[in-house]
Design brief:
The complex is a heterodimer of chains A (about 500) and B (about 160). Chain A is mainly α and about 500 residues long. Chain A is built from 24 helices and 2 strands. Chain A has a two-stranded antiparallel ribbon. Chain B contains 6 helices and no strands. The radius of gyration of chain B is 23 Å and the shape is flat. Classes of the chains: A mainly alpha (about 500), B mainly alpha (about 160).
């Protein structure tokens, strides 16, 4: 009964209902405008929700996340510019459809399938999170250390140009997270005697700098994009085509949920894997892939919205972010005094069911807003970047200031923004940095707890990883992932491939 | 990020700078508690900065291994400037810097108005009157949403205290 009451809280409270709707709406538009990412939106917006009650902030964030992941598909279809990385596959099939005059159908189908995907992800969250949470209570300090390392490693290896650059970005984030007074011994770390630095680097300033200012500077390179107008007629998709692609959407949602739930991987990878699955499993597409195949549109869109629910699983049960957006959301939860982790479901179960209810609500709003308002939409996304970029800067500055009313934070934001611009320009991803900032302090304290338990003996510390099945599995996973990035692995694979080629004449 | 990455102008210098930064960070991390024990405050910072040193050594080596830039230093600098830091970027960063430095002094409304007008004029290049209209409209919307609806405290400014 309690569960139902918490689940329905945002459905019955008009203010929360409005916030969820506003969040979803804003998410769709922010996600759709090329250059404005969901991560940027969430990191700028959480700063404004600092003074709000927790529920209000969570309602808004759930809406933005849901809407933003979907929003990228619209510009992908209409302009061939993926509004977000998770819509890259959508552009491959959606834009050719739009060129054939089927933009309306493409958007309609995308919307319905995104909503299906969203529900699958949320259902998985509601079903599995309590189970995983029970399980996670058994996790030891060393397991959390490994989970953090795996998360950063996954983000670092899957994005950017090279493993070295990904690892550097992750470690830099951890280092930024270390600045300030050590929570265990109160020794200053990297403070250089400065009182300002003793409080640590404001991580919201880092987030907004890396995702807002740096991205705005990158966007300055592509100021003038030709606007293409598309004819849009029918948006509500035919029932027959929904029925036809339903099972594909369900399979893609399954992929999306699992990928989303893995620490470090999010909607963008889920979408690409689902696209690949659609390509392999469709034997005779009506239209070849790459020329506007509906299968190739349905699968990635269902998958990336399913990944939203999936990403909440490790976030709420383990306190490990699934991707850059959830890293930012975890930051927001910290600000609101919550500690995402296995105890969150025990101590504050109402928040969990409230979040599930919110996500369902956001998904329903997604269906409503997704199938309406296309005319206004095409006008808004054509807003010139020359106006957009200065606005992003102003919003970033306000957002950074709003956290603690401290102008120094805005200087941090600018510094990180310029650093982020150079990093992006030279092929570094900034996602791992933020993941490192969020996970760094958690990994540090867990490492030290595990080391103290091993009485500072490196041998005992390493042997401890074999003492419990959970630690052993995680350790093997971590080592395999690390090994797969070294040249030894490549040689090994080449050898195996060569042998199988000999065996199969 | 697709296809084979080619070396961008300035990549070597950036890689070397990051390597140098990592080394300094490692030295600073060592300074926290040295090698007194494995669970000291300095251990994890040393692990993190150590990872940075190894990783940056790897990509620096890769960047230095390729064929070097040709031509005189001045042409190479010009190349870097055109590709990585065009005047538009330099001006924009300068404007943002001026904006964040002036904000505590002028207050949010005045500083933002000046910044928006200058930067939109720089990037959009329309008639000043149109830019002014866009600036005012944007400021009214931002002020309404954040000050009135979200109730965010915006910087007031020492110079014009109490006016905005």
């Amino acid at each position: 009964m309690d569960i139902l009451a918490n689940f329905a809280m945002s459905w019955l409270d008009p203010w929360l209902l409005l916030l969820t709707a506003a969040g979803t709406f804003a998410g769709i538009y922010i996600g759709a405008i090329p250059g404005l990412s969901v991560t940027m939106a969430v990191s700028i917006l959480i700063s404004f929700t600092f003074a709000w009650p927790v529920n209000d902030a969570l309602a808004l964030i759930a809406g933005i996340f849901m809407g933003g992941v979907y929003g990228g598909s619209r510009t992908a279809i209409l302009l061939n510019i993926p509004g977000a990385p998770s819509a890259i596959a959508t552009a491959i099939e959606g834009y050719p459809m739009a060129k054939r005059g089927e933009a309306g159908e493409a958007i309609g189908l995308t919307t319905v399938m995104s909503v299906f995907g969203g529900f699958v992800g949320i259902a998985a969250l509601a079903l599995f999170a309590p189970v995983i949470s029970d399980f996670a209570i058994m996790f030891q300090s060393r397991d959390y250390l490994l989970l953090g390392l795996i998360g950063i490693l996954l983000v670092g290896t899957l994005s950017g140009e090279s493993f070295a650059k990904g690892a550097f970005a992750g470690a830099l984030g951890v280092l930024i997270g270390m600045v300030g007074l050590d929570p265990m011994t109160a020794e200053g770390r990297f403070t250089f005697g400065s009182i300002t630095l003793m409080g640590g680097v404001p991580y919201v300033a880092a987030m907004i700098g890396f995702f807002g200012v740096a991205e705005a500077l990158v966007q300055l390179h592509s100021l003038d994009l030709p606007a293409i107008r598309q004819k849009i007629d029918r948006i509500i998709p035919r029932f027959s085509s929904v029925k036809r692609y339903f099972w594909l959407a369900m399979r893609a949602s399954g992929i999306g949920t699992i990928i989303g739930a893995l620490p470090g991987t999010g909607g963008d990878i889920a979408a690409l894997l689902a696209y690949d699955h659609a390509k392999r499993s469709t034997k005779n597409p009506e239209v070849p892939f790459g020329e506007g195949a509906r299968e190739g549109l349905v699968a990635p869109e269902a998958a990336n919205n399913a990944a939203v629910g999936g990403a909440f699983i490790p976030m709420l049960t383990l306190g490990i972010p699934g991707d850059a957006v959830t890293a930012v959301i975890i930051g927001a939860l910290f600000i609101h005094g919550l500690k995402p982790g296995p105890l969150m479901l025990v101590e504050t179960p109402h928040l969990f069911w409230f979040t599930v209810g919110n996500l369902v609500l956001a998904n329903i709003f997604l269906l409503i807003f997704g199938l309406t308002g296309i005319k206004v939409f095409t006008k808004i996304v054509q807003c010139p970047k020359a106006i957009l970029i200065p606005l992003i800067i102003v919003l970033s500055a306000v957002g950074t200031y709003a956290i603690q009313n401290n102008p120094v934070h805005i200087y941090w934001m600018l510094g990180f923004g310029v650093l982020g611009y150079f990093m992006k320009t030279y092929g570094f991803e900034v996602g791992p940095v933020i993941l490192g900032v969020i996970l760094g302090p958690m990994m540090d304290s867990n490492y030290r707890r595990a080391m103290i338990a091993a009485q500072d003996d490196i041998g005992v510390f390493l042997m401890d990883f074999t003492r419990h099945p959970i630690s052993a599995v995680l350790a093997i996973l971590f080592l395999t992932m690390l090994l797969s990035q070294t040249p030894i692995w490549r040689k090994l694979r080449q050898a195996i491939q060569a042998r199988s080629r000999i065996n199969q004449p | 990020m697709s296809g084979k990455p080619t070396r961008r102008p300035g990549e070597r210098a950036f890689a070397v700078a990051l390597l140098a930064f990592s080394l300094v960070a490692f030295w600073q991390a060592f300074d926290i508690s040295g090698f007194q024990g494995l669970s000291t405050a300095g251990m994890f910072p040393m692990l993190a900065s150590g990872t940075m040193v190894v990783a940056s050594a790897l990509f620096t080596a890769k960047a230095l291994a390729g064929p070097g830039g040709t031509g005189a230093l001045s042409t190479r600098l010009a190349h870097f400037q055109a590709a990585i830091l065009p005047y538009r970027h330099v001006l924009m960063i300068a404007l943002i810097l001026a904006y964040v430095l002036l904000m505590p002094w002028l207050g949010f409304v005045v500083a933002s108005a000046l910044f928006l007008f200058a930067s939109i004029q720089l990037l959009w290049r329309r008639k000043p009157l149109i830019t002014l209209a866009v600036t005012v409209l944007a400021l009214v919307v931002i002020h309404f949403i954040f000050r009135v609806v979200f109730q965010v405290v915006l910087p007031q400014g020492d110079l014009l205290r109490g006016m905005f």
